[in-house]
Write a structure and sequence with these properties.
Radius of gyration: 28 Å
Strand content: 5-15%
Oligomer: single chain
Shape: globular
Bound molecules: heme C
C-alpha cells in the first residue's frame, strides 16, 4: 500500500510538478533572455569547466557564482565559434573564440545588445580614429595608444593568420571596440568577467574607470557632489543587487551615474543608450546643444542644434559613415525633459528647472567669455600663418588645449553634475587664470604686439565680459594687471 502510494506520488510529481517547474524556469528567463533555455548548457562545455577549474580557478569560481553559472549557461555557450569565424581557434578539441562579442551576448540579450550598439558608446572609436594603435605616431606615441586611448575608447581588434589576437589591439575592453565579427563595443567594459553582474554595473565605479581625467572628469565631479556624498554614506541602502532597480521604488538613498543616465524610474524605462538624456555636447572648444537623430534601424547620432533638424524619411550619414534613413529626432528640449523627470523623484519642479538654468548659464558664460574669443583668435593665427598647422609644436597650442579641454571641461561637467569645486576652483578659476595670464600673453608672442592688440581688441576688448579689464582704475583682482600683459606696462 505504502509503496503504491509513494509510487503514485512519484508519478504525480513526474507528470505535474516537473513540467510545471520547467515551464516556470523557462518563463522566468523568457522575460529577460531572448534565447530558449533548451539552447544552452551545451554538454561539451562541461570539459571546459573541469579543466579550467584547475587551469584558472579564479575565473571559473567567478563564473560558477554568477547568474550565468546559476542558470546553467556555460563556457562554451559563450565562447563557441564557427569554423569559418576569422577568430576561431581550435582548443582542446572544440572550436572557440576568445572574444565573446556584444553580438554573441545578443543571442540571449537582444534588447541590451541593440541599445548598446545604437548608443554613442559603441561609436567611441570615431573620435580617436587618428590615434588608433599602430596607425599614427603623434605626440602621444603608438605604444601609449594601445594602453591609453584605446583602453577606454576601444581598439579595432586584429586577428592574426592563426586566429590569435594581435597584442597591439588586445587585451581590450574599450567601450567602442570593433570586434572581429564587426559588432561594436564590449559588454565587459561595465559587466566585468566572469561575474557579469548587474549590481556591479550599477556602482559608479563601473563608469568612473573611464569617466575620469580631462576628457570626462565625472569621477571627481560625482564624489565632490552631494549626490556622491550621499552614495558613500548610504551604500548599504542602495539595494544594488535588487532584481529590478526602479528609482523611488527599489531605492532612494542617492542617485548614481546609472540613475541619471541609464536607469529606470516611474515612467522611464532603463536603457543601455547612455547618451539619450543629454541636451548638451559638453566637450569641445565651444559647447553646443544637440539633437539626437534616431535612424530607422535604431542607430543614432548627435547633430548640433544650430543645424536644422533633419526631417523624417531623409537620408543622412551615420557616425560610422554609411547613410541612414531618419526615423525621429529628439530635440535638446525633449532630452532635457527626460533627464529632469529623473530628478523629480527626489526634488520639486522649480528646484530642478532653476538648477538647469544655472547649469546652462555657466556653459553659455564659458562659451561667450572664453571659448568663442579664444577659438576665433586661434583660427585667425592659423589663417595668417602665424602658427604652423602641426597641432602641438608651439606653446600657445598646448595652452589653448589646456584651456578648453582640461579646464573648461571640468567647469562644464562640474556645473552639469553639481560639483561647485570642479565648476569653480578646478574649472572656471583656472580658465580665467589661463586666459588672461597664459593664453593672451602667448598670443602676443606669436602675433607680435600690433597684430595682437588688434586681435585682442576685436575678440576680447569689445566684449562686455572683459570690459572691467580696460578700466584703468580697476586692478585685476586675479592678476593685478590688464589684458594679457605680462607686467604693469
Ligand atoms: C585540458 C584542459 C582544458 C580544456 C578542456 C579547456 N581549456 Fe581552455 N585553456 C586551458 C589552458 C591551460 C589555457 C591557458 C593557455 C595559456 O595560458 O596560454 C586555456 C585558455 C583558454 C582561453 C584563452 C585562449 C587565448 O589564448 O586567448 C579560452 C577562451 C578558453 N581556454 C576557453 C575554453 C573553453 C570554452 C573550453 C571548453 C570548450 C576550454 N577552454 C577547454 C585549458 C583547457
Ligand atoms: C556570459 C558569457 C561567458 C561565459 C559563460 C564565459 N565566458 Fe569567458 N569570456 C567572456 C568574455 C566577454 C570574455 C572577454 C573577451 C571579450 O571582452 O569579449 C571572456 C574571456 C575569457 C578568457 C580570456 C581572457 C582572460 O581574462 O584571460 C578565458 C580564458 C575565458 N573567458 C574562459 C572561460 C571559461 C573557462 C569559462 C567557463 C568556466 C568562461 N570563459 C565562461 C564571456 C564568457
Ligand atoms: C546562452 C544565453 C546567454 C548568453 C550567450 C549570455 N547570457 Fe547573460 N544571462 C543569461 C541568463 C539565462 C541569465 C540569467 C537571467 C535571469 O536570472 O533572469 C543572464 C543574466 C545576465 C546578466 C544579469 C546578471 C545579474 O547580476 O543578474 C547580465 C549582466 C548578463 N547576463 C550579461 C551577459 C553578457 C555581457 C554576455 C556576453 C558576454 C551574456 N550575458 C551572454 C543568458 C545568456
Ligand atoms: C580614462 C579613459 C580615457 C582615456 C585614456 C582617453 N579618453 Fe577620450 N574620452 C573618454 C571619455 C569617458 C570621453 C567622453 C567625454 C564626454 O562625452 O563627456 C572621452 C572623450 C573624448 C573626445 C571627445 C569626444 C566628444 O564627445 O566630443 C575625444 C576627441 C577623445 N576622447 C580622444 C581621446 C584620445 C585621442 C585619447 C588618447 C590620446 C583619449 N581620448 C584617451 C575617456 C578616455
Ligand atoms: C555602460 C555600461 C554598460 C555596458 C557597456 C553594458 N551594460 Fe548591461 N547593464 C548596465 C547597467 C548599469 C545595468 C543595470 C541597469 C539597471 O538595472 O538599471 C545593466 C543590466 C544588464 C542586464 C540585466 C537586465 C535586467 O533587466 O536584469 C543585462 C542582461 C545586460 N546588462 C546585458 C548587457 C550586454 C549584453 C551588454 C553588451 C551588449 C551590456 N549589458 C553592456 C551597464 C552596462
Ligand atoms: C570603457 C570605457 C567606458 C565605460 C566603462 C563607460 N563609458 Fe561612458 N563613455 C566612454 C567614452 C569613450 C565616451 C565618449 C564617446 C563619444 O563621444 O563618442 C563615453 C560617453 C558617455 C556619455 C556621453 C554621451 C553623449 O551624449 O555624449 C555618457 C552620458 C556616458 N558615457 C555615461 C556612462 C555611464 C553612466 C557609464 C557607467 C554605467 C559609462 N559611461 C561607462 C567610455 C566609457
Ligand atoms: C543627479 C544626476 C546625475 C548623476 C548622478 C550623474 N550625472 Fe552625468 N550628467 C547629468 C546631467 C544633468 C548632465 C548634463 C546633461 C545635459 O547636457 O543637459 C550630465 C552630463 C554628463 C556627461 C557629459 C556628456 C556630454 O554631453 O558631453 C557625462 C559623460 C556624464 N554626465 C557621465 C556621468 C558619470 C560617469 C557619472 C557618475 C560618476 C554621472 N554622469 C553622474 C546628471 C547626472
Ligand atoms: C535619489 C534622489 C535624488 C535624485 C534622483 C536627484 N537628487 Fe539631487 N539631491 C538629493 C538630495 C537628498 C540632496 C541633498 C539636499 C540637501 O542639501 O539637503 C541633493 C542635492 C542636490 C543639489 C545640491 C543642492 C545644494 O544644496 O547645493 C542639486 C543642485 C541637485 N541635487 C540637483 C539634482 C538634479 C538636477 C537631479 C537630476 C538630474 C537630481 N538632483 C537628482 C537627492 C536626489
Amino acid at each position: 500500500m505504502t509503496v503504491n502510494h509513494s509510487h503514485s506520488r512519484q508519478f504525480l510529481f513526474i507528470c505535474l510538478i516537473i513540467p510545471l517547474w520547467s515551464s516556470f524556469v523557462a518563463n522566468s528567463f523568457a522575460e529577460k533572455v531572448t534565447l530558449d533555455p533548451s539552447n544552452w548548457g551545451l554538454k561539451e562545455g562541461e570539459a571546459c569547466i573541469s579543466c579550467h577549474k584547475k587551469a584558472s580557478a579564479g575565473l571559473t569560481h567567478a563564473w560558477k557564482n554568477s547568474a550565468h553559472g546559476e542558470a546553467g549557461v556555460n563556457c562554451l555557450d559563450c565562447h563557441l565559434a564557427e569554423q569559418d569565424d576569422n577568430d576561431a581557434i581550435e582548443h582542446e578539441g572544440s572550436i572557440i573564440a576568445t572574444i565573446v562579442s556584444p553580438k554573441d551576448c545578443g543571442r540571449c540579450h537582444t534588447k541590451e545588445y541593440q541599445e548598446t550598439e545604437a548608443s554613442v558608446h559603441s561609436k567611441a572609436i570615431a573620435v580617436i580614429k587618428d590615434h588608433l594603435p599602430g596607425q599614427s605616431d603623434d605626440p602621444s606615441g603608438k605604444e601609449m595608444q594601445s594602453a591609453g586611448c584605446a583602453s577606454c575608447h576601444g581598439s579595432v581588434v586584429e586577428v592574426r593568420g592563426d586566429g590569435t589576437l594581435s597584442p597591439e589591439t588586445w587585451p581590450n575592453t574599450g567601450i567602442g571596440r570593433v570586434n572581429p565579427d564587426g559588432s561594436r563595443g564590449s559588454c565587459s567594459a561595465c559587466h566585468t568577467r566572469h561575474s557579469f553582474s548587474k549590481a556591479q554595473a550599477r556602482d559608479p565605479s563601473a563608469c568612473t574607470w573611464c569617466h575620469t581625467g580631462p576628457d570626462s572628469p565625472d569621477d571627481k565631479v560625482y564624489w565632490s557632489s552631494k549626490h556622491g556624498a550621499m552614495f558613500n554614506a548610504n551604500r548599504d541602502k542602495m539595494n544594488l543587487s535588487s532584481d529590478t532597480w526602479v528609482l523611488g521604488k527599489d531605492y532612494s538613498a542617492a542617485p548614481t551615474c546609472v540613475t541619471c543616465h541609464m536607469g529606470a524610474s516611474p515612467g522611464i524605462k532603463p536603457s543601455h543608450d547612455v547618451g539619450m538624456r543629454n541636451a548638451w555636447g559638453l566637450n569641445g572648444p565651444v559647447s553646443e546643444k544637440q539633437h539626437l537623430v534616431i535612424f530607422e534601424d535604431n542607430d543614432r547620432r548627435n547633430l548640433p542644434a544650430s543645424q536644422t533638424a533633419p526631417r523624417r524619411g531623409t537620408e543622412i550619414s551615420k557616425v560610422t559613415g554609411e547613410m541612414g534613413k531618419v526615423k525621429a529626432v529628439a530635440t535638446p528640449k525633449r532630452r532635457r525633459q527626460i533627464m529632469s523627470k529623473v530628478c523629480l523623484e527626489c526634488h520639486n519642479k522649480n528646484f530642478v528647472n532653476d538648477f538647469m538654468k544655472q547649469f546652462d548659464n555657466l556653459v553659455e558664460l564659458y562659451n561667450e567669455k572664453y571659448g568663442k574669443p579664444a577659438q576665433a583668435i586661434m583660427q585667425t593665427l592659423y589663417a595668417e600663418d602665424l602658427l604652423t598647422p602641426a597641432p602641438f609644436d608651439e606653446p600657445l597650442e598646448s595652452i589653448y588645449w589646456r584651456l578648453w579641454h582640461d579646464e573648461a571641461t571640468k567647469a562644464r561637467h562640474g556645473a552639469a553634475m553639481m560639483s561647485p569645486n570642479l565648476t569653480w576652483w578646478e574649472g572656471m578659476h583656472r580658465v580665467a587664470h589661463n586666459f588672461y595670464n597664459e593664453f593672451l600673453p602667448a598670443v602676443r608672442k606669436v602675433a607680435g604686439e600690433d597684430r595682437a592688440n588688434s586681435l585682442i581688441d576685436e575678440h576680447v576688448g569689445s566684449l562686455e565680459h572683459h570690459k572691467w579689464l580696460k578700466d584703468a582704475s580697476i586692478t585685476n583682482p586675479i592678476l593685478g594687471y590688464g589684458i594679457g600683459r605680462t607686467s604693469h606696462d
